């Protein structure tokens, strides 16, 4: 008996060490970016900063927040995330709800078509041509319209609606004279809030982190989202020119920052933090929905 207890204790300690190491490897890069963003840029370029800022300053954030392009890119990202997530949940859930009803005519052929489209894509060139014909190239709605319907999320929602919503409740609404839309808004939505929260979070993260669409389908810099702006800053050899000389001169004249305190790298670190923090702050508010999600399926006929 003592051996089993000793083995369990060793497993618990080993498991804790592995999980703590993994957590550290996940958190430390973000922490490192944070301390570089609040440290003087030229001082940080000397190296030796690993755990705490050596010379604290907020000038990097002052410079970043004074850039109209960055603020506009941030606003574009917020808009596309909110509109795209809500629109995707609505459209996808309506399709999933319709396909979850066995009385829908042509239900099985439709499911096969959706499955085929999910597995096989037409490719980038046909997609680009389609966007041209729809007038979505260099248009804000290119971020929203193509992503309004997710086949994968539709299959997840359909399965959840079939397995977790009691048919007796649906039949009782029908007996009271309620139609399909009333069932959707008064039965399906309340029963599926944990599912909507989880899929909505994944959809929002996808919108927030998407740089590809802005880089290839939008040419107007005023319509590009923050991830695309960051991608340009971090991957092009012209990254040092992303902070324009005119902006730096204006900031210097306004005496809002110390010229020795910032470098292009330090401003990039501040921009990354601004891009990452909002989506991270969403998780605590949705935590309770994930906890409730464990109970999905507990209601049986």
TrEMBL record:
Belongs to the binding-protein-dependent transport system permease family. It holds the Pfam family BPD_transp_1. Residues 74-286 form the ABC transmembrane type-1 domain. Keywords: Cell membrane, Membrane, Transmembrane, Transmembrane helix, Transport. Signal peptide: none annotated. It is found in: Cell membrane. Its main location: membrane. PROSITE patterns: ABC_TM1. It comes from Cohnella cellulosilytica. This is Carbohydrate ABC transporter permease. Gene3D superfamilies: MetI-like.
């Amino acid at each position: 008996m003592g051996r089993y207890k000793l083995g369990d204790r060793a497993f618990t300690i080993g498991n804790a060490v592995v999980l703590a190491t993994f957590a550290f490897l996940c958190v430390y890069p973000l922490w490192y970016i944070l301390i570089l963003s609040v440290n003087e840029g030229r001082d940080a370029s000397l190296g030796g900063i690993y755990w705490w800022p050596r010379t604290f300053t907020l000038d990097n954030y002052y410079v970043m927040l004074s850039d109209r392009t960055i603020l506009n890119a941030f606003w574009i990202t917020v808009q596309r995330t909110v509109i795209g997530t809500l629109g995707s949940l609505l459209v996808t859930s309506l399709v999933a709800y319709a396909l979850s009803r066995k009385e829908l005519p042509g239900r099985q052929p439709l499911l096969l078509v959706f499955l085929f489209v999910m597995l096989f894509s037409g490719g980038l060139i046909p997609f680009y041509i389609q966007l041209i014909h729809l007038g979505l190239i260099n248009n804000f709605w290119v971020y929203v319209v193509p992503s309004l319907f997710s086949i994968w999320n539709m299959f997840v929602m359909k399965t959840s609606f079939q397995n977790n919503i009691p048919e007796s409740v649906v039949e009782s609404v029908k007996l009271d004279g309620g139609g399909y839309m009333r069932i959707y808004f008064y039965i399906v939505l309340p029963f599926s809030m944990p599912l909507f929260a989880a899929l909505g979070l994944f959809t929002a993260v996808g919108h927030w982190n998407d740089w590809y669409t802005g880089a290839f389908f939008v040419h107007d810099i005023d319509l590009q989202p923050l991830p695309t702006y960051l991608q340009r800053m971090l991957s092009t050899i012209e990254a040092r020119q992303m902070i324009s000389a005119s902006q730096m001169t204006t900031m210097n004249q306004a005496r809002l920052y110390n010229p020795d305190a910032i470098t292009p790298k330090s401003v990039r670190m501040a921009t990354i933090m601004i891009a990452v923090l909002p989506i991270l702050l969403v998780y605590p508010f949705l935590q309770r929905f994930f906890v409730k999600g464990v109970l999905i399926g507990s209601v049986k006929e």
